Amino acid sequence: MPYSIEIDLHGHTVESAKTLLNDSLKKLPKDVREINVIHGYRGGTALRDMVRKYSHPKIERKILGLNQGITTFIIKK
Fold first, then answer.
1. ∠8-13-18 over CA atoms, to 5°?
2. Under a CB-based contact definition with an 8 Å cutoff, are residues 75 and 58 in contact?
3. From CA 71, how far away is CA 37, in angstroms rounded?
4. Tell me: the pLDDT tens digits for 35-73?
5. Which of 76, 66, 26 is nearest to 7 (CA)?
6. Are 39 and 32 in contact (CB under 8 A)?
7. Is 9 exposed, middle or buried (0-12, 13-18, 19+ CB in 10 A)?
8. Which pTM does this prediction carry?
9. CA 45/CA 32 separation, integer angstroms
10. What is the Cα Rg of the chain in Å?
């Protein structure tokens, strides 16, 4: 059954956040279909901007929801 996971980037630098995303996507279980990336936005926009520009072959598309501190990655089947 498909499911979603969360990755919280609070406290990370842009570079360490990229490394965490790359490692997480590399080890992603096959039945994960969504990743909610929590990046925040009140302490600055560097993480948010990086996440929204971030690309990876496993990401089909991104959803920018009403909560400005979260970006959802939809994972390819």
1. 70
2. yes
3. 5
4. 999 999 888 899 999 999 999 999 999 999 899 999 999
5. 26
6. no
7. buried
8. 0.93
9. 27
10. 12
**Nearest partner of 33 among 77, 70, 68, 66, judged by Cα:** 77
CA distance 56 to 14: 16
Task: Tally the C-alpha atoms within 13 A of residue 36's C-alpha that lie toward its C-beta.
Answer: 12
64 sits in which H/E element = strand 59-64
Q: Which amino acid is at 65?
A: G
CB 52 within 8 A of CB 17: no
DSSP string, 26-45: HT--TTEEEEEEE--STT-S
Phi and psi at residue 44, in whole multiples of 5°?
135, 170
